[in-house]
Amino acid sequence: MEHFFQCPYCWEEISMLLDISEPSQSYIEDCEVCCNPIEVSMNFEDGELTSFDAFSIEQ
């Protein structure tokens, strides 16, 4: 499943392919525009995306 969201660093809209086989996921992936690491977390229910968050890993 393709999901579009805004990078928390460069604010560009980017897309990410999501794997719906696991109901709850969290991992780090680099922005395709600015290459900064983004912590993403998501939840699925019955194959539908129920929540998605993308955070800067800087404090």
Task: Note the topology.
Layout: E1 2-6, E2 13-17, E3 24-30, E4 37-45, E5 48-56
Antiparallel strand pairs: 1-2, 3-4, 4-5
Question: What does this protein structure show overall?
Answer:
The model has no long low-confidence stretch (mean pLDDT 94). This protein has one domain (2-56). The chain is mainly beta. The chain contains no helices and 5 strands. The protein is elongated.
Topology as a string of helices (H) and strands (E): EEEEE
Binned strand content: over 45%
Give a short account of the largest sheet: 3 strands, antiparallel
- The total beta strand count reads 5
Rg, Å, rounded: 11 Å
Assembly type: single chain
Give the overall silhouette. elongated
Which blocks of ≥5 consecutive residues have pLDDT under 50?
none
Helical proportion? under 10%
Total discrete domains: 1
Give average pLDDT, whole number: 94
Structural class: mainly beta
Gap between N and C termini, in Å?
30 Å
- In the sheet with the most strands, the strands line up as 3-4-5
Query: How many helices does DSSP assign?
Result: 0
